[in-house]
Hints:
The protein has 325 residues and is of the alpha+beta class. The protein has helices at residues 34-39, 99-117, 129-138, 168-176, 184-205, 212-223, 236-247, 280-291, and strands at residues 19-26, 50-58, 65-69, 75-78, 93-96, 123-127, 142-146, 150-151, 158-159, 162-166, 255-259, 262-265, 276-278, 317-318.
Amino acid sequence: MPQQPQLRPAGGAAPAKGTDILLLGTDSRATITEQERRKFHAGGLACNCADVMMLVHVSAKRDRVSMISLPRDSFATIPAYTPKASAKQRPAHPAKLNGAYAEGGATLLERTVEAATGVSVEQYLQLDFRRFMDAVNQVGGVEVCTKRRLKDSKTKLNLAPGRHLLGGGQSLQYVRSRHVDPSADLGRIQRQQRFLVSALTRLTARKVLTDPVAMGRVARTLLGSAKVQQGFGKDGVKALVSLASALSKVPATRTEFATVPIAGFNPPKTGIGSTLRWDAAKTKAMFTKVREDRPLIAAGTDPKPADPPVFGKDVPVRGNRLACA
């Protein structure tokens, strides 16, 4: 039995108002050099999983953006599907959310996210280490800031309090670090959200979002070669350039960042391990707002993020709360 209720049956996500995009970062190291692996401590064995999963909702009027992070260890039910190498259908089965990518790539992960959230996903964009690093370098780096030292024993990230302009490799260390403090993946998710706010600020300041030529170059880097499976249609570059132009008009105060509400841990399951259990009531309320194109944050309120985040007490915040002061 699923350990968190499915909001809609697999494949039955309700058409949404606005646009919903699945942003996912894979753990593939195949496209970076051995020297880069050593320099940025990006070694280890890849599981061919999606380590970053974020549902991005752009309102119908394109005047608000809500970004909801989906923890990789969330319990999920992968819908029935037919593997490419087999004519026999595999029935629906429990797994960690990021395992859907390992089984069937971005399209199966897209279906799994739809089944878990009840939100229809129109497009998806997947990034590996190479495309992420190259895109950051292409815009001259991204500035991040921290009020406390960020030191990770695995990635070797070591940032003193203050502002730091990070290149592609250092940015990869920043968004991958999860051994900075006891908040683990929730802390990593918050840094990923902070990084996105900083990246949008950088792109806006350099007028990249509104320059079709410059943004076109960034879009081609993000999308990768024609061999890379992407969910932005035949003319993905044009679609990303159009989306970037719309985002340029959305101030940080009109962006929202959240993590799926977590209720706790499920008991370990053989072949799956320990998984996170979503808070059924809070999750349903959150994704109902997404489907109905409503803000996650109540008007007149301005929640502050805890740093580091507190397990079970995370709340949606506006992008300006995650930006450098």
